[in-house]
Amino acid sequence: MKSWLISCILVTEWLLPTSGEDCPSPPPVNNSILVGTCMEGNVLGTYICIKGYHLVGKKELLYNNTSLEWDSPAPICHLGHCPIPVLVNGHMNSSNLEPVSEGEVVTFECDTDYILKGSNWSQCQKNNMWIPPLPICSTGQCPPPRKPKLGHFKARDFNSGSNVTFYCNDGYQLIGAQSLQCMDGEWSHEPPICEKMEVKKEASCVFQENNICETVQRWIQYQKASGQTLEELKYSLEIKKLQLEKIKFS
Ligand SMILES: *[C@@H]1O[C@H](CO)[C@@H](O)[C@H](O)[C@H]1NC(C)=O
Ligand SMILES: *[C@@H]1O[C@H](CO)[C@@H](O)[C@H](O)[C@H]1NC(C)=O
Ligand SMILES: *[C@@H]1O[C@H](CO)[C@@H](O)[C@H](O)[C@H]1NC(C)=O
Ligand SMILES: *[C@@H]1O[C@H](CO)[C@@H](O)[C@H](O)[C@H]1NC(C)=O
Ligand SMILES: *[C@@H]1O[C@H](CO)[C@@H](O)[C@H](O)[C@H]1NC(C)=O
Ligand SMILES: *[C@@H]1O[C@H](CO)[C@@H](O)[C@H](O)[C@H]1NC(C)=O
Q1: Given 99, 117, 138, which residue is the final one in a domain?
Q2: Ranges 8-17, 107-116, 215-224: which has the least confidence
Q3: Is residue 206 part of a domain?
Q4: Beta carbon of 209 within 6 Å of any ligand 2 atom
Q5: What is the pLDDT at residue 22?
Q6: pTM score, two decimals?
Q7: Which ligand number lies closest to the CA of residue 92?
Q8: Residue 41 pLDDT grade (very low, low, confident, very high; cuts 50, 70, 90)
Q9: Cβ pair 52, 9 in contact under 8 A
Q10: Ligand 2 in reach of 185 Cβ (< 6 A)
Q11: Is residue 70 located within the same domain as residue 6?
Q12: Does residue 4 carry a pLDDT above 80?
């Protein structure tokens, strides 16, 4: 394995590998420093833009010794330590004429009727990125919600503040929120789904022995039929329990 360093600052300069392995050179990129690593004819090229420039494209290029091709096109080093910030339907306090320098702070504001999504400021970092990430100006409108497979929804529009109401086809029931509200471009809930309505089953019996089970169910039904309240039902269950315990210990 061998490594080498190629710098191509404005006029491309190559520090070629001394000898030995036959390693193809990664394509030159203006205003970059290139670190190349070669192993059995496979080459990994890593590009680093010089100060005041930022990289557009893939940072690393790999040469395949079988296909004899680079896995992606060479990147480009653009002027400006970070990309020029862009804010559609808004404005920022940067001139946009000067290349961006490291540490530069920009603040953002959206035009009226637009909502800022993200941070209202950002700073160009050492690693050529804007942190926090650049925001966008959104109309606040929501994307159409997902229609339930076996139902539909009604809405006047998808503007911020508007509601959309969901309905299921006959025989299907709604699972989830029936209404969603659009709030600055995002729905308040996940859209619901429609599920086949379940036929209500008798509460299943937890007792192992069928006869006990039947007895208890019959007894509960009898209590219900006699029109007892839940409180009374509980009371009579307590009595029943005591009676059973008496039998057990006598
Ligand atoms: C790199 O810089 C040289 C000299 O300034 C220029 O002639 C060449 O077109 C540039 N290459 C690219 C890919 O921009
Ligand atoms: C290509 O690389 C593989 C390992 O990735 C190696 O085994 C093989 O010998 C190489 N072929 C040539 C022609 O260098
Ligand atoms: C190199 O290219 C060959 C032929 O196109 C392909 O089969 C192989 O997977 C590639 N290897 C890598 C590491 O991408
Ligand atoms: C933009 O505003 C921020 C915060 O007020 C300030 O730090 C920065 O220097 C301003 N940038 C420009 C280009 O005026
Ligand atoms: C950014 O937003 C914060 C709170 O969200 C606010 O206090 C601050 O004044 C805003 N800055 C600018 C430059 O709009
Ligand atoms: C949408 O629903 C919310 C909450 O249910 C309610 O407060 C609001 O008034 C509704 N908006 C419209 C436009 O109907």
Answers
A1: 138
A2: 8-17
A3: no
A4: no
A5: 73
A6: 0.61
A7: 4
A8: confident
A9: no
A10: no
A11: yes
A12: no
Beta bridge partners of 32: 8, 49
Residues 63 and 115 in one domain: no
Domain count, the chain: 3
- The answer to the question of residue 106 being in a domain is yes
176-193 mean pLDDT: 95
Q: Is residue 247 part of a domain?
A: no
Tokens of 2: 């061998």
Amino acid identity for residue 38 in this structure: C
Q: How far is the CA of 43 from the centre of ligand 3 (A)?
A: 13
Atom of ligand 2 lying closest to residue 65 CA: 1
For the chain, helix (H) and strand (E) counts, in that order, are 2, 20
Under 8 Å between Cβ of 29 and 76: yes
Q: Which range marks the domain in which residue 41 is found? A: 2-79
Q: For helices 230-249 and 210-225, what crossing angle results, to 10°?
A: 140
Looking at the CA of residue 162, tell me the nearest atom of ligand 6. 13
Q: What gap in Å lies between CA 179 and CA 40, rounded to an integer?
A: 62
> What pLDDT shows up at residue 97?
72
Name the pLDDT band for 210 (thresholds 50, 70, 90): low
Q: What are phi and psi of 59, to 5 degrees?
A: -70, -35
* Sign, Cα dihedral of 159, 163, 169, 172: positive
Convert the pLDDT of each residue in 20-31 to its tens digit.
Answer: 567 888 999 999
Q: Is the CB of 30 under 6 A from ligand 1?
A: yes
- In a domain, residue 236? The reply is no
Instruction: Return the SS3 of 152.
Output: strand
| Residues 121 and 187 placed together within one structural domain of the fold | no
- Whole-number Å distance between alpha carbons of 192 and 84: 42
- Lowest-confidence pick of 99-113, 116-130, 174-188, 220-234: 220-234
**What CATH number does the domain containing 129 carry?**
2.10.70.10
